What does this fold into?
Amino acid sequence: MSEASLNLDRVSRTPRLSDVVSERLLAAIREAGLQPGAKLPSERDLGEQFGVSRTVIREAVRHLAAKGILEVRSGSGASVARIDSSSVSGALALFLGRKGMPDPQKIHEVRETIEVQTVKLAAQRATDEHMAAIRRAHEQMGQVADEPEAAANADVEFHRAIARATENELFVVLVDSIGDVLMDIRRATVWQPGRAKVGYEYHQRILEALERRDVEGAAKAMEDHLVESLHALTAVGAVLGRKRKRRK
It folds into this structure.
């Protein structure tokens, strides 16, 4: 009887030294509470403290820079990266580029988790300035309803303005992190006849609830809006699926 053929990889005996150093360096940064922009010691100093060569330090720093944790500039050394929503959004875009766009239900679940909470907090915390920004985004969408790309941008800005009204910058980062995904959704659906008007009407309900400081009413209006958006995106996905099958 012949032996089975298996696809096996060689087992690594130990982690690379640079990986160990990068993990310990990250732990030290966290423990020290270094803020974005803080400079790290030189490669020479780090090498002496870790008891390793500058080559190992350089590789460890490159590893953390690739993760977006450190920034490395020629002549100025390494510093803690200034991570913002665009960094998170970029990482998510790369992830989706490899995995493909999530199915509509998954997108809906994430949006519901984030945006229902943001609108509830906005109803409680929004200042007059916040409300003015939300109204401007809403009015802008109404003015460009016949321009799909502009309407999509105004749609996204409406939701960003609500996130800013929570007075919690982490919600802004979360909403911005899925900004590219949301733009793809708008671009996919806003071309449907009357689609921009439908979105505008749902936004109107949300805006009116916010103006009344109606927390539960704002949450319900947002939930209805997201459900309707899910249905629209599902319909677009079905149409695209049929077109792909016909091409085959």
The two ends are 43 Å apart (CA to CA).
